[in-house]
UniProtKB/TrEMBL annotation:
Secretion signal span: 1-26
Name of the featured protein: DUF3829 domain-containing protein
A Pfam family assignment: DUF3829
Record's keyword annotation contains Signal: yes
Keywords: Signal
Length: 325
């Protein structure tokens, strides 16, 4: 039996940009580096991700992704529909029918907004464009089925129309699930490449350098976490990634500890909170690995705790910066 885990995403404001962030925001403007960002080359003639316009577009995409995480839950909707409507498999008249209604108009609007921006984000643009008609189709069939179920039309036609809509509804949910995953994977990979480029340009032992190092190590830990799918899976790579995360987080803690408390070079209090949140992430990750071996039946809660600890940490990273003096 597989481990029930939610996707590793979070919401967080990227410093100075009114957008949501996916996975990690350490490449947002950092006062310690004069606001420099990674200049990720786009397609020939396209904008670079370091440009503010491209960053705004990227954050708009990620805001749409976070909306999907909040309201999509496509796999859950498929399971719910199939579990509560077993009567659809026979020909007896329906006396009840259930579904989880979903609204995706706001997500489509956000994707459309990003698509109209001039900046080019290779790969991500294409996956976002492909996602729009899939969500539009889901919206159409969801509305049709919701009207049928809400009005209890199955009590009139015995379920004839419901049995016709159901396969289209499930197919639309599955298509949305797959398109969302492709969009998420491409977006995460692109952001990873961006942050790696930013780290290569960051001044050693600067705040940006330490934040990016911790961010990338945290993301590495989540990638190893995602590879664990069932009790008995090898957790050594995951626990090793937590050790690596602990090492770079200790370096960040040292940098924070040496910074002046006030005046030039002082840091916001969010920096220490970020260090603490990352330590919590490491702790919950180790608990997850231990529970997987000793009490695998209880591991779902520990998996959730690890994801939440990651999300909590990300909430602090974009606020960890040099104070204005």
């Amino acid at each position: 039996m597989g481990i029930q885990k939610q996707g590793v995403f979070y919401k967080g404001l990227c410093g100075g940009l009114a957008g949501m962030a996916l996975l990690a925001t350490a490449a947002c403007n950092d006062k310690s580096s004069g606001g420099n960002q990674a200049m990720q080359a786009g397609d020939a003639g396209g904008k670079q991700l370091g440009d503010q316009e491209a960053q705004k577009k990227f954050n708009t995409y990620v805001k749409a992704m976070n909306m999907l995480i909040d309201s999509g839950k496509f796999e859950e909707r498929i399971a719910y529909f199939e579990r509560l409507n077993p009567q659809l498999k026979n020909s007896a008249p329906l006396t009840e029918m259930y579904m989880m209604n979903i609204g995706v108009d706001h997500i489509i609007s956000r994707l459309d907004e990003a698509q109209k921006m001039n900046a080019t984000i290779p790969g991500v643009d294409e996956k976002a464009k492909a996602l729009i008609p899939v969500l539009t189709q889901l919206d159409t069939v969801n509305t049709e089925l919701n009207t049928y179920v809400s009005a209890k039309e199955y009590t009139v036609d015995g379920g004839k129309k419901g049995r016709e809509i159901a396969p289209r509804y499930l197919a639309a949910l599955a298509a949305a699930r797959d398109a969302q995953q492709q969009f998420a994977d491409t977006t995460a990979a692109y952001e990873l490449q961006r942050d790696q480029a930013a780290l290569a340009k960051a001044k050693p032992d600067s705040l940006q350098f330490h934040k990016l190092t911790v961010t990338l190590a945290a993301r590495g830990a989540t990638r190893e976490f995602d590879k664990i799918n069932a009790p008995g899976d090898d957790t050594s790579a995951f626990t090793a990634s937590l050790t690596r995360l602990g090492e770079v987080n200790a370096s960040l803690a040292g940098f924070v500890g040496k910074a002046p408390k006030t005046g030039a070079g002082s840091l916001s209090s969010d920096c220490q909170r970020y260090v603490d949140k990352v330590n919590s992430m490491i702790g919950t990750g180790r608990t997850f690995a231990q529970t997987l071996k000793s009490k695998p039946a209880d591991v779902a809660d520990d998996a959730k705790d690890f994801i939440e600890a990651f999300n909590d940490g990300v909430g602090e990273v974009s606020s960890c910066e040099l104070e204005d003096n």
